[in-house]
User: What shape does this take?
Amino acid sequence: PTCSGKSSLAHALRDHLTSVESAAVSCLLLHLDDFYKPSDQLSQVNLEEDTYEDWDSPQCFDMSAVIRTLEQAVESVVICEGLFAAYPPLLEHLSGVVLLRVCKEVCLERRLRRDLWLRDHQIYFHRHAWTMWCEYGTLQETHVTARGLPTIRLDSRAHTIEEMLGEVCSVFSDYLLPSLTTVHDDD
Assistant: This one.
């Protein structure tokens, strides 16, 4: 879901992959946030007496542009990061999936720190953003399982970024780099 640590983990993975001396990996970090449609093309969400732009459903992204970018990224490890990075139209372009989980309370706490406007509009989080995640997050998990993609499910509240990075590198080492070894702390 939103504010679960996706961007932090994606940056850590990219930094690790590009620093593995023996590998010389070309790595593209693709943020779905860079593919939001212009605000005048977003759906409107009516909640009680207020209307909000929908920034929290798959329809707010230009998925065609995401797919074109994925198709053009040849001979690179592509890390596709975002709220709907495992959405069905994108799955055929993925070799593996990391699904981060965080409880609603922690998610809200983190989002309130990040998005100041939400402090006065928490109804948007409770009745739209979290609801969209529950609906589409379940859909993504169902499709990931059906495709049989290698998948890691992590609770970002229970693991540090370093621990999650170690798990990702361990599980996906054959997909990322044949020479990639597990990241671990020698102490």
Q: What stands out?
A: The two ends are 32 Å apart (CA to CA). The CA atoms of residues 87 and 140 lie 5 Å apart. The longest helix spans residues 122-147. Helices lie at 6-19, 63-72, 88-91, 104-114, 122-147, 161-176.
